[in-house]
């Protein structure tokens, strides 16, 4: 379990806190998305999960390890794998295989086991045989998958992703998000930071941050209804939810509080089929 207890964090004592009095729990294996406007504290929160940052106030625990205890940092960073927004900030090897092996070498994993885990990690992300390639020859999507493979080689219990589909084309985005969904089905806990509410719809639970505070915590449909309320001005509501609301106002019997394009398409398709069966012109 991940637990934040009354956590606040400041980068500069002269500035307001980036996180303020934040308390939450994430059960083992849950898929959680974190959304909010720029500067709300999403990335700062994520860096507390593996002790890249320590709270100015409060406590952060991961699977019983307190992030303030430096003796547990090695195990903590093995358990919590983080994929940064820009993969170029994370790739350090001259070849793909060297890059994936880097973390394992720092843990003094035997060379024979490193070779096996590098190969298995590349196979897992669909890049088998790419070990000898130089990272600069990779596309943006491939670099993202190499960063993910480097994390998976460490056998983490938790996967933290900061805007994993940023800068990718449609194909690369689908490939990356499909991989994340597959890892979650295998039992891995996922913390997914995103600006795209369509991506957040894949999560079991969405946390909404605003100015460092947790203002909403619920299922995707509950969060969608919250964002559609007039009181929410800093966070733009999901485009699909706005579309469906306008269709409902026009008399269409389609679902409310829809986030993803797929769900909106399905709702409209079912409504048109219903009209066709009833003989009512659309």
3D structure, described in words:
- Helix content is 39%, strand content 20%.
- With 282 residues, it is α/β, with parallel strands linked by helices.
- It folds into two domains: 2-235, Rossmann fold (3-Layer(aba) Sandwich); 238-282, no CATH class.
- The strands form two sheets. The chain has a six-stranded mixed β-sheet.
- Helix 3 crosses helix 4 (111-124).
- The longest helix is centred in the C-terminal third of the chain and has 18 residues, at 261-278.
Short description:
Helix content is 39%, strand content 20%. It is an alpha/beta fold and 282 residues long.
Label this structure with key terms.
alpha/beta, 10 strands, 282 residues, Rossmann fold, 2 domains, 4-stranded antiparallel beta sheet, 10 helices, 6-stranded mixed beta sheet, globular, 20% strand
Set out the fold topology.
Layout: E1 2-9, E2 19-26, E3 31-35, H1 42-47, E4 57-62, E5 65-66, H2 73-79, E6 80-83, H3 96-106, H4 111-124, H5 140-152, E7 158-162, H6 170-185, E8 189-193, H7 197-200, E9 205-210, E10 213-218, H8 220-228, H9 239-249, H10 261-278
Parallel strand pairs: 3-8, 3-9, 6-7, 7-8
Antiparallel strand pairs: 1-2, 1-4, 4-5, 9-10
């Amino acid at each position: 379990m991940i637990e934040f207890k009354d956590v606040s964090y400041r980068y500069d004592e002269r500035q307001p806190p980036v996180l303020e009095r934040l308390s939450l729990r994430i059960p083992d294996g849950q898929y959680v998305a974190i959304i909010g406007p720029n500067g709300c504290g999403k990335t700062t929160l994520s860096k507390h999960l593996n002790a890249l940052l320590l709270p100015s106030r409060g406590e952060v625990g991961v699977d019983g390890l307190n992030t303030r205890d430096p003796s547990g940092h090695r195990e903590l960073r093995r358990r919590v794998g983080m994929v940064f927004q820009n993969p170029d900030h994370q790739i350090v090897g001259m070849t793909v295989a060297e890059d994936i092996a880097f973390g394992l070498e720092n843990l003094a994993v035997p060379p024979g086991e490193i070779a096996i885990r590098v190969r298995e990690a590349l196979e897992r992300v669909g890049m088998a045989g790419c070990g000898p390639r130089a990272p600069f020859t990779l596309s943006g999507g491939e670099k993202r998958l190499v960063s993910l493979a480097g994390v998976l080689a460490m056998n983490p219990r938790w996967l933290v992703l900061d805007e994993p589909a940023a800068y990718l084309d449609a194909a690369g985005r689908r490939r990356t998000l499909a991989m994340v969904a597959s890892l979650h089905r295998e039992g891995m806990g996922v913390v997914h930071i995103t600006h795209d509410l369509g991506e957040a719809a894949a999560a079991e639970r969405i946390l909404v941050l605003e100015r460092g505070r947790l203002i909403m915590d619920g299922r995707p449909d509950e969060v969608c209804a919250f964002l559609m309320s007039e009181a929410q001005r800093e966070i733009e509501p999901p485009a699909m939810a706005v579309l469906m609301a306008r269709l409902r106002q026009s008399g269409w019997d389609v679902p409310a509080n829809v986030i993803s394009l797929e769900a909106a398409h399905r709702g409209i398709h079912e409504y048109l089929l219903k009209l066709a069966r009833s003989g009512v012109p659309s």
